[in-house]
Please model this.
Amino acid sequence: MVAQVWYRGLCARLRPGAPRRLHGWGSATFSSRSLSSSTNDGFLKEKRAQIMSRGLPKQKPIEGVKQVLVFASGKGGVGKSTTAVNVALALAACDSTKAVGLLDADVYGPSIPKMMNLKGNPELSPKNLMRPLKNYGVACMSMGFLVEETAPVVWRGLMVMSAIEKLLRQVDWGQLDYLVIDMPPGTGDVQLSVSQNVPVTGAVIVSTPQDIALLDARKGAEMFRKVHVPVLGLVQNMSVFQCPKCKHETHIFGADGVRDLAKTLGLDVLGQSLSKDSY
Model:
C-alpha cells in the first residue's frame, strides 16, 4: 500500500504544471513554471559547477550484476530497442541458468514496457528498493513503469542524470549474469552517466544503412571509445525488405553501409536484420 501511494504521488507530480518533488530523488522542487525561472537556472548552474569541480566519478559496480551490456545508436528510430530486447530474450532463452535483466535508460521515450508487454508499478522491497517487473524470464526496469503511459517527462539534464542513477542503484536486481541497457539516442548526459559510473563490459552500436544514420552511429562509437568503453561491434538493422508475396529482396536503405563503417572503425559486424516491414 505504501508503495502504491508513493507511485501515485509520483505520477501526480509529473502532470503539467504540478510541483515535482520526487521522494528520494533529490530535494529540489520543479514545476513547469519554475523550470523557466532565472532563480532555478541559477540553481542548476551552481549545481552543475559543483559536480564538475569534483572531477570524473569513480566507477562502482551494480550490486549483484556481473556483466553490463549497453545498446546504443546516435540516431533514433533505427531499431536499437528492438535489438536490445531480442538480445536480452536470447540470452535468457539460450541458457536457463543465466539471470538476465533489461534496463530502459530512455527517460523521455521509454519503450521497454510496451515491447516486453509489461504494465504496473514496481513494488518496494524491505530495503526500499524497487523490484523489477518480469516477463519472458527477463527482469525489467523502466521510467515507463513510474509515470502514466501518455505523460511526458519534461526534465532538464540534472534531473535525468539523477533518475538514471536511481534506476541503476535503487533497484533490487538480485543476482544477474547480464544486465542489458537500452540507451536513448545521442551522446549526451545518459550515455556519460552510465559509462562513467558503471563498469560496462561492452557497447553495441545499432544503425540502419543510410548515410545520415551512419554519421550518428560513428559518433556513438567514438564516444564510447573516448570514455574507454569497449565497442563490441555494430548491428545493421532494416538491411533488406523481403516482399511477402514473391519473396524478392530489396535493399531500400542501402546494402553495406554498416559493413563499410565497421571496416573504417576496425570493428566487427555482429549481425543484420530484415526491414521492419518484413516481419
User: Anything to note?
Assistant: Residues 38-53 form the longest helix (16 residues). The mean pLDDT is 82. Helices lie at 2-13, 38-53, 80-94, 112-115, 157-169, 189-197, 211-226, 257-265.
